[in-house]
Specification:
Helix content is 31%, strand content 22%. The protein has 304 residues and is an alpha/beta fold. The protein has a single domain, classed as TIM Barrel. A hairpin with a 4-residue loop joins β14 and β15. α4 runs parallel beside α5. The radius of gyration is 18 Å and the shape is globular. The structure holds flavin mononucleotide (FMN).
């Protein structure tokens, strides 16, 4: 059985990775599971300089999901290279670095710095952040800005580029197409959904930031639909994510069109989830006589 999949020129030994921001920088999970069994390790978003993030509370549990407003806390490029890269580069599996910026130039600079570092498996562009130059418009919800940021990063690096699309758009197809046309090698679908929750006794928001991003099982059917729509729009591979808790969830994403999948929120309550998903995909393939994991991709059948 061949579980390996291709994301641009990055070969993942199996189709299961972890979602940015739910797995720290890998090292935090090293005692909880064998990282070398993963398809890749995806780290928390990095911008050029260190970021403190939002005040607490930063997370709140909601029905079948999690709300978070971490505020993209991170060590910056230099801090990441100093503190975390020595550990990550010693792993057998590729590291995918999730990057962001507040201007097109900052994205490109971060991409250039990681290109120069050498040894990174791929860059994932988190475009769900406001462009300060353009008055706060989100890169991921403005087709023109999205094209600019992907094209600038494409110029800055030969590393595989994965554009992580925002779900906060009326139709994902034009965004998927724009990222592909600007040189993205793959897409990640999807990021968290804007949401909020209120403590009615105190009449206060449950997050200090008032609003945050909703993730976990409650978003899965919406995320599967977004993957299906994006897959119809582009030829490049898609990493599907949103509420994956087990192999059945992952296979659903693959059937909808995902080449690989990422486990996110589930890492917080069951750190072994990604490994269980890999075992379950293998078992499903055996049971259905499937020899290549990539045969699952887009295998959804719709009666005509
Ligand atoms: C606490 C937390 C932090 C996150 N941080 C990032 C981040 O830094 N960059 C990013 O692109 N996505 C980030 N995400 C989004 C996840 O990578 C993923 O897209 C989302 O959680 C959906 O998957 P899930 O439902 O399996 O968690 C974060 C999600 C959570 C829950």
């Amino acid at each position: 059985m061949n579980l390996s999949v291709q994301i641009g020129n990055l070969t993942m030994p199996n189709p299961v990775t972890v979602a940015s921001g739910t797995f720290g920088y890998g090292v935090e999970y090293a005692r909880l599971l064998d990282l070398n069994q993963l398809g890749a390790v995806v780290v928390k978003g990095i911008r050029l300089n260190p970021v403190r993030g939002h005040p607490t509370p930063r997370t709140a549990e909601v029905t079948s999901g999690l709300l978070n407003a971490i505020g993209l806390q991170g060590p910056g490029v230099d801090g990441f290279i100093r503190k975390y890269w020595p550990f990550l580069k010693a792993l057998k599996v590729p590291t995918i670095v999730n990057i962001w910026g507040t201007t097109v130039e900052e994205y490109a600079e971060v991409a250039r710095r990681f290109d120069a570092l050498g040894g990174i498996g791929a860059l994932e562009l988190n475009v769900s952040c406001p462009n300060l130059k353009e008055g706060g418009a989100q890169f991921g919800t403005d087709v023109k800005l999205l094209s600019q940021v992907v094209a600038a990063c494409r110029q800055a690096t030969k590393l595989p580029l994965i554009t992580k699309l925002s779900p906060n758009v009326p139709n994902i197809a034009p965004y998927a197409k724009a990222a592909e046309a600007a040189g993205s090698d793959a897409l990640s679908v999807t990021n968290s959904f804007p949401a909020m929750a209120i403590d009615i006794e105190t009449r206060r928001p449950k997050l200090a930031n008032v609003t945050g991003g909703l993730t976990g099982p409650c978003i899965k059917p919406i995320a599967v639909k977004l993957v299906w729509e994006a897959a119809k729009a582009v030829k490049i591979p898609i990493i599907g994510m949103g509420g994956i808790q087990n192999a059945a969830d992952a296979i659903e994403f693959m059937m909808a069109g995902a080449t690989a999948v990422a486990v996110g929120t589930a890492n917080f309550y069951e750190p072994q989830t990604a490994l269980n998903v890999i075992a379950g995909i293998r078992e499903f393939m055996e049971r259905h006589g499937i020899s290549e994991a990539r045969q699952l991709t887009g295998s959804l059948q719709i009666a005509k």
